[in-house]
Amino acid sequence: MVASSKDFSSDKHGWAELLEPRPMGQKLQGDHKAPWVVIGAGFTGLACARRLAELHQDDEILLLDARLLGQGASGRNAGFAINTSQFPGAYEIAKIPEYKRLNRINTAGVDLLRAQVLAHSIDCQWDEDGLYYGAADRHSMEQRDHFLRYLEIMEVKHTALNQTELNEKLGTNLYQTGVFVPEGVLVQPASLVYGLADSLPKNVKVFEQSAVLKIHQGSRIKLDLEQATITADKVIIATNFEAGKIGFLKRYLIGSTLAGSFTRVLTKDELASLGSLSHWGVLSLHGGGATVRLTNDGRLMLRNTAEYNGGALLSASQMVERRIVHRENFERRFPQLVDVPFEFSWSGVEGISRNGTNFFGKQSENIYLAGGYNGSGVSKGTAFGACLAEYASGGQSQLITDCLASEPGTWMPPRPILDIGAAYTVRSRFKEVGLDR
Ligand SMILES: Cc1cc2nc3c(=O)[nH]c(=O)nc-3n(C[C@H](O)[C@H](O)[C@H](O)COP(=O)(O)OP(=O)(O)OC[C@H]3O[C@@H](n4cnc5c(N)ncnc54)[C@H](O)[C@@H]3O)c2cc1C
Fold first, then answer.
1. pLDDT band, very low/low/confident/very high, at 216 (cuts 50, 70, 90)
2. What is the crossing angle of helices 43-55 and 189-198, to 10°?
3. % of the chain residues with pLDDT over 90
């Protein structure tokens, strides 16, 4: 299977564009040999390269990304690094070990991120003031009851909130009921990616716009890039849903395209028309509902569309249409701010599997892979990435056992049936979303 560098397109509409422009990174050229190559510089690849560098201090680790840093899902997500996963439906006693396993992985990821942010003073609006979960419609109100029971049994600290309390904090009357969970982090995702990349140990060499186009498997692995080749002892694939482009998990992992919009920075009066909190993040208790934030720099953000778009970002014309959906639901939440325009809209592609599982482990001799976090990969991707470095280095730990315990992925049919099935899978997330959208 041979990819082309055109298969890794991007646009200039991510959270990176809210930051100061960054100098263009180096592109890999020529023929190279390396003991370790990590493909993909999102949270998974960054954590993996860092851990490999710590474990093999005399080895050079090559970290390659097809795009500019911060242009993958890791720089385009909503910025929630969660400790506690949310599951649709009623709490199931039989699933306690599985809930605990996932939450151990999430928590390890948050701990790893926090350690790096503190050690390197990464300026990424890191905010540990907790997360809100909101329910605006009948279906999500039922989900709230399930979520509360789950939090109680899992002994996760939380506070149930009513409409008045939510309105007082967030400045919207839309949510009928909700929950506050004090653990969990909000970040500016692109600046976190930049900070993690800039603080990597010296034996990690980062190359941008350096897509791996083909992997030749064997006792030593050969990688073809547009202007380079690498002969590697061990290769880590941290490419999220794009693993299929270089011949891995093609029938198991697809890309779902999400999109949202930001307002401009709100004025003092506009901020005063909101609630008592200066920044916050709300996840919907409906799996297909909106994610909404008031960012630390005073913008409102709403992300509420998700679709199967063949694993691509939205085109400019698609974005114009989705922006109408963002706008309508923004104004329903914040009628006091109908005059505040959106300044910016963006899309991103997350890796999803049919059965909601994640992928971790050995793919073939000396090739390892982690990815596919179904919309929740900031903390999980970080933990999977660091753990994969240890696993590929022969390590053993409870966390590696946890990562290896992900259920096998479910096979997906080839195109065009895949397109229909994938579109259906993504659309079914919106069933009964109602006012939560
Ligand atoms: C809009 C949106 C909102 C989201 N919100 C949240 C959230 O709030 N919280 C949360 O936990 N998760 C969220 N997610 C999911 C989360 O962003 C992802 O799960 C996570 O970023 C995955 O990290 P990763 O490193 O595995 O993949 P990515 O960040 O996608 O990184 C993979 C990298 O590999 C590179 N690549 C691919 N193929 C090649 C190749 N052949 N050669 C070289 N490089 C290659 C890509 O350019 C990319 O940069 C969201 C996702 C989206 C799209």
1. very high
2. 20
3. 84
